[in-house]
Design brief:
It contains 11 helices and 23 strands. It has helices at about 10-25, 65-70, 75-80, 115-120, 165-170, 175-180, 180-190, 230, 250-255, 260-275, 325-344, and strands at about 1-5, 30-35, 45-50, 50-55, 65, 85-90, 95, 105, 125-130, 135-140, 145-150, 155, 160, 170-175, 190, 195-200, 215, 225-230, 245-250, 285-290, 295, 305-310, 315. Bound molecules: flavin-adenine dinucleotide. GO terms for molecular function: oxidoreductase activity, acting on NAD(P)H.
């Protein structure tokens, strides 16, 4: 049985694991490693430290299906709707860009990471390990030896890398020597926006009186988006407490990218008071830097994946190889899966 390592428990990695499990049962041993403490990647949902039910989506906010992707990824949408992972967005989002006709927006009642967790649950039998930060990959015999920070290296027959492209380029060992000149140029040209996110958690019973569930903010130097997250997800928060998500603008993110949390958080909170004067004091705040937020320019002329080595197989996928949303991840996971299937 081939042993396949998927690096990254975001949407691309978890869906790759699920596709392998469903389409090639008993043929592969699937292992997923992620450097974080939980699943989701940029589809991350944070919990209030004092109330696990009070959560906030710090990365992706909602899932938008264009008519084209709604059709070609119909089975994925149907599955997530059938499992109540997705629900139609019914709340009022102010300032949203004009929508393409026929576009459908969805929210995730249990937080956006529930999409990723759904696919990991569907990968029954896969070994999913967190706090496994991959640092080196070396070829050893007919397979790969993969090293992670603070742990013992392990051997795999095939490796899939699903992290943002600059993090793929940071890997040491064989990755840097394998990439040919044209692949390297394409990977180095990939760019991402950067921004900060705050999750503000409140005591049960706190009222946040705004006439919207989420709003795009124009003309503020720091804040671009605010969501009253429970309202966005159409939940009754009276017994768990509301949560507020704040995303900064990209120019603010870029300007303060190397600053510390202690420097950046007060600046965001000061601007938040200007945008929403009288906002109550939260009981807890989660701070998140998205150095690699959304893909600005993806790998050029790319079929959704890049194969760095065929025997043994080393393949990269993720939104950097398509575009930065759920459909981009599904598209890439399907392409990575095709490569795995024909190679294994
Ligand atoms: C602020 C923000 C808002 C967004 N809004 C939306 C939205 O509204 N709708 C939408 O559809 N999309 C949105 N997106 C984009 C969406 O979140 C991404 O396209 C998607 O989550 C990418 O998934 P992925 O699996 O390809 O990568 P990731 O989610 O980045 O997963 C990669 C994983 O690899 C792990 N990793 C990295 N390096 C290593 C290593 N060396 N070893 C082990 N593990 C490693 C990371 O911890 C991570 O979990 C948003 C993103 C951000 C940041």
């Amino acid at each position: 049985m081939s042993r396949v390592l998927i690096v990254g428990a975001g949407l691309t990695g978890s869906l790759c694991a699920c596709l392998l499990r469903r389409e090639m049962p008993n043929k592969v041993k699937i292992v997923v490693w992620d450097k974080s403490r939980g699943a989701g990647g940029r589809m991350s949902t944070s919990r209030c430290p004092s109330s696990a039910e009070c959560t906030a989506d710090l990365g992706a906010q909602y899932i938008s299906a264009t008519p084209y992707y709604g059709q070609i990824h119909q089975s994925f949408y149907e599955e997530l709707l059938a499992h109540n992972v997705l629900k139609p967005l019914v709340a009022n989002v102010e300032g949203m860009m004009k929508k393409e006709e026929g576009l459908r927006d969805f929210v995730t009642p249990k937080g956006v990471s529930s999409i990723v967790k759904h696919y990991l649950r569907e990968s029954a039998g896969a070994e999913v390990l967190f706090e496994h930060h991959v640092t080196h990959i070396h070829q050893k015999g007919a397979g790969w030896e993969v090293h992670w920070k603070g742990g013992v290296a392990e051997q795999f027959d095939a490796v899939v890398l699903t992290m943002p492209v600059p993090q793929i380029l940071q890997l040491q060992g064989v990755v840097s020597s394998l990439i040919d000149k044209s692949q390297r140029q394409k990977l180095e040209a990939v760019s991402y926006s950067s921004r900060y996110a705050l999750g503000l958690f409140y005591k049960a019973g706190t009222q946040i009186d705004v006439p919207w569930a989420a709003k795009y903010i124009a003309n503020n130097p720091c804040i671009r988006f605010i969501s009253i997250d429970d309202k966005k997800r159409n939940l009754d928060s009276s017994y768990i407490g509301p949560s507020v998500v704040v995303h900064t603008s990209v120019p603010f993110g870029v300007q303060h990218l190397e600053d510390t949390k202690e420097e950046v958080e007060p600046l965001i909170l000061e601007q938040l008071q200007k945008v929403l004067p009288g906002l109550p004091q939260p009981i807890s705040i989660k701070f998140q830097k998205w150095r690699y937020s959304q893909v600005l320019s993806a790998v050029a002329d790319c079929p959704g994946q890049m194969t760095l080595h065929t025997e043994p197989l080393l393949v990269c996928g993720g939104d950097g190889f398509t575009h930065s949303n759920s459909d981009g991840c599904i598209e890439s996971a399907l392409k990575v899966f095709e490569v795995l299937k024909s190679s294994l």
